[in-house]
Sequence to fold (365 residues):
Amino acid sequence: MKGFIIRVSRHYRRVLLQSFSDKEYSYQRYLAAFFGLIGSVISFAMGINSILIDLFGLAISLFATSLLLFLSFLLLMSDKYVRYHNGIKYMALVALLSLGAYLIHSGGVDNSGPLWIYIFPSVIFAFCGFKIGIMINVVFCAILILILYTPDNYFLSTLYPVAFKSRLVLSFSTTVALSAFYEATRHNSYLKMKRLKVKFEQESQIDELTHLPNRRGMRKKLREAYRKAITSNQVFTLAVFDIDHFKNVNDCFGHEIGDEVLKHVSDVLSDGIREQDILSRWGGEEFLLLLPNTNGEEAFPLLEEMRKLIEKSHYHKANEVITITFSIGYCEMSDTVSLSEMIHLADVSLYKAKQTGRNKVLAHG
Ligand SMILES: Nc1nc2c(ncn2[C@@H]2O[C@H](COP(=O)(O)OP(=O)(O)OP(=O)(O)O)[C@@H](O)[C@H]2O)c(=O)[nH]1
Fold:
């Protein structure tokens, strides 16, 4: 039984948290559903207790609130009503606040009813966020003051000591202020985390040295290109570029110059590609180029041109001139090969280009 309840609650937590792209809304929906269920059970139990002690007016308000809260819980759990999520949340809140107003008006059991209003500030902020939460809390404070201080106790069916009234208003307002501060801090931290997440995600997909997409970033772009090509019935070509004898550059000139050469070739390649092409740093001295909407036949002259471009663009440092050449293998998309197979086949062609003398462009097959 325990395992079943845990499984069901995990399932719904997942469903509720995934229902909006903005996690803040999903979080509010999740909390509202959770409070709906808990609130409904508590008010139902208190309703039964009120019947037992002959407080029928209070029992009716508690049962009505319990029913509305349970209804809001069911509606919030159902995916069918995601569109009405806000309306349902406000229905639950109105039910809860009306019960609060009734408890202040009637005093509940032995004038202890107003004690329950201390749960409202945090519930309101959790349901509605900071801005709307502040407004609703202020409105409820105003209702509290109205009920307590209208001349001749017009809205009261019980008597509270004067000191109790003022302390109730003061302590409730303090709770609202503290909850508002907490909510603002929580919301700011959430926004900061969200910004950092976007920043880290972007940074994790960019190569620090060349500022090109790295392997991780490129994989994402490749998957998108593959999906797009399939749906639009187009083909693309993938080409793997590998610098020839790059180890010699490092050995002769050092790693720092090696890094500068990598930057230099990435700049030359970036300038040489078409606007729609996507170049990435695939590994150490290896670059992967995506040529969208281009078949193998069309790709060959473009790749040849780039090979020549690099060959001619010598890298100059003081008195040193370093000539760089690339071996390039490429593969055209087809129905029978997956994305990773395409990369593998382009790699196989690159290997052949290396084996057969380097500084050349070879197609798969
Ligand atoms: N400076 C620098 N060197 C790197 C970087 N990443 C990889 N390398 C170097 O690239 C070299 C690759 O060497 P190999 O795999 O033997 O290939 P190669 O010397 O280019 O020879 P072939 O590929 O067979 O033509 C190694 O010396 C690596 O240290 C980097 O980010 N910066």
About this structure: The pocket of guanosine-5'-triphosphate is lined by residues 242-247, 250, 255, 258-259, 262, 284-285, 354, 358 (CB under 6 Å). The mean pLDDT is 92. The first helix runs from residue 2 to 18. The longest strand covers residues 237-243.
